[in-house]
Each structure stands twice: as C-alpha cells, then as structure tokens.
Amino acid sequence: MDNGNFSIFCGDWSANEELLMLDGIEQYGFGSWEDISDNVQTKTPAEVMEHYELMYLIGNIGRGSLPPNFCTKVIDHTTSSDGPLSPSLTTPFTPVEMSLAEQQELGYMPYRDDFEREYDNDAETLVSNLTVDLNDEDLDTALKLSHVDMFSRKLMERERRKKIAREYGLIQAATSTGSKKVQTKRKYPKEEKDFREKIGPIAQFLLSSEQDQLFENLQREKQLRVRIKELMRYRRHGITKLEECSEFEAARHKREKRKENKKKMAVPSGKRGVKEEKVKEEKVNDVNDFQEMKYTQGFNYLSEKEKKLCKSMGMKPARYVTIKAIVIKDHLLRRQGIPTKTRYPSNLDKANRKRIITFLSNSGWISTS
C-alpha cells in the first residue's frame, strides 16, 4: 500500500513532507518558516524555505504559474522617518493682524487660527469617548468608524469656513473697530452686477483675488472688442497704418463740425437756441437710455425706433428680435394660405404684445388685413 514515502522532486524530500509543507504554508502563511518547519517535523526552517523557493518559485511550477514580469500594485504611502505626520502641519499661513483688544473681543488666536468657540463646537463629542477594543464586533467597529468619519467632515467644514473668513477679511470686520473700517460696497454697472449674480454659485471656488482678476479680464475683453471694431472701420476706409488714424479722425471731426454749422445756418436765429438744446438733450437721453443695452445680444440688429421701443417696454433686444421673427414668419405663412396661430412666449405681457404688433404694422413689416 502506498504510504507517501516516495520522492516527487528530489530524493531527500518525500511526498508526505511536500504535502505537510504546503499545508503549513496555507495554514501559517508564506514566510512563517519556523511554524511550517514544525508542521513538517523533519526539516529545519532554512531547508523548508530553500526547498520551496527552489522547487515552487524558481522551478518548473513557478515558471509555469507566475508571470515573467511580475509587478506589485502595492504603493508605499509612508513618509520619511524625520518627516511630519501631516504636510499641513508645516504649511505656513499668514496670521490675521489684530490688536490684543480685538483678539479678546472675538476670542480668536491668530497665530493658531483658532477661536475659543469654533463652528460646531461640540463636534469633538463624537470621538471623545471612543476606545479601541480588539474584541469589538464588526457592527461596533463600523459604528465607531462612522463617528470618526462624521467628525472628519465637521473638521473639514470648520477649516473651510475659517479659510473663507481669512480670505475675505470677515474676521477683522466682525470686531467693533473693524466694522467701522469696512468700506462701502462698490457700485457696479448693471451688466457687471448681473454677471456677478450669475456666477455666484461658483464664487465659492474662487479666491477674492481670482474673482477680481476674472472681472478685470472681462472688462479688458470688452475694450479689445471695441478697439478691434475701430481698427476694422479704419481698414474699410483704406487706412493701413496707425499714424494715419489721427489724420482720419481729425478729418472726420472737421466734417461733422461742418455739417453741424450748416444745420445751424439753416435754422432761424430765434428758434436756433431752443432746437440746439433739444437736440443735445435728445442725444444725452439716447446715450443714457441705450448705455445699458449697448453690450447686450441683438442690440446691433435694432433700428433707432426699435431701440426706443425696447427701452420703453424694458425688454431685452434678443427677446424682441425673437418675437419679431415669430410674428413675421407666421404672417408670411398666412399670406400663403397656410392657417397658422401665432404662439407667443408664455410670459409676454399682453400690452407689450399689442405694442409690438402695432409697431410692426405701422413700420410695414406686416399688414393689418
């Protein structure tokens, strides 16, 4: 009867010893050679390690089962022995400049960036009574880890709020003396104010300096667009050098002045002053009225009468152009014999709709029949 005393790889290792060695590796783990040697009983730890590496790793079994270019996915996340526990401990920050009286008033320690009473001041109670016990069940361990996770989130939110307060000067403004130093809010143009309101949700991801730089870049973009239009106008008039621009502007100014003088000569002397004042007032009013709509979409497609109509209704040019296109399109379809019902925007006021229809009819865009 076979009792396993025959050899498989070499003569000094029997089949029973091979099985005992493999059982020991499975039971105690790779590398526990002393325990594996005790399980074999007839071999020393050095002999067990040498035999396993020679026959099962380097030998035919290892070459047939292990890939030739074996690479591990284990990443070493540990730092050097003399490094900090956390990189944030050595990250410098600029302390807030405050007097001793202001620090005592707020209960704030600027060099530690801590308040005597922090945001969610009782957050530490989540982990203050936690203990590590090796006999804890899986449910208890998961509960403790969830407490640690909640505490970490509260600390992150606390740090985020303090960072925002430092960045926007809210700490100094909270003191009695700092509130007096706070400057009045700057008044922005309507277009820039609307744009600031639109990007409000993403403002929390920008520093105050980055936000100011963004608006400066947008203002610079507008100036460049205006300058490009001027250069295109010069090019249309055959000007190819910047030195010729000043001469062109001077000549244009002379022509405009000559036209104005001719108009003055045509007006009777008694009514000249009154008409001049009216013309100046109309120009000033038109400039003021259209200044808010100047950079909006669709403004360049409007005539002077349409600009005044949009201004009187408080309607944006792009919205007016859309309604105008709908009305004219449906009018043309009806003239071709196709029954069509005009679908106006749901939030369009009836009075404004009537004014637009009347204006288009009087201007000859559509017929009343």
Q: Helical proportion?
A: 55-70%
Number of strand elements: 2
Percentage of residues in strands: under 5%
Given the C-alpha coordinates, what overall shape results? elongated
Overall pLDDT score: 79
The largest sheet, given as strand count, sense and whether it forms a barrel, is: 2 strands, antiparallel
Radius of gyration: 42 Å
**Structural class of the helices, strands and pairings?**
mainly alpha
H-E order: HHHHHEEHHHHHHHHHH
Give the N-terminus to C-terminus distance in angstroms. 116 Å
- Number of helical segments with 4 or more residues: 15
Low-confidence stretches: none
Q: Kindly report the spatial arrangement of strands forming the biggest sheet.
A: 1-2
Write up this protein:
By secondary structure, the chain is mainly α. 58% of the residues lie in helices and 1% in strands. The protein has 15 helices and two strands. It has helices at 15-28, 33-40, 45-57, 60-65, 100-106, 138-167, 170-173, 178-181, 190-198, 208-236, 243-266, 269-291, 304-313, 317-335, 350-362; strands spanning 108-109, 114-115. The chain has a two-stranded antiparallel sheet with strand order 1-2. Helix 1 (15-28) packs antiparallel against helix 2 (33-40) and helix 2 (33-40) crosses helix 3 (45-57). The chain is elongated and about 130 Å long. It starts with 14 loop residues before the first helix and ends in a 7-residue tail after the last helix. The mean pLDDT is 79.
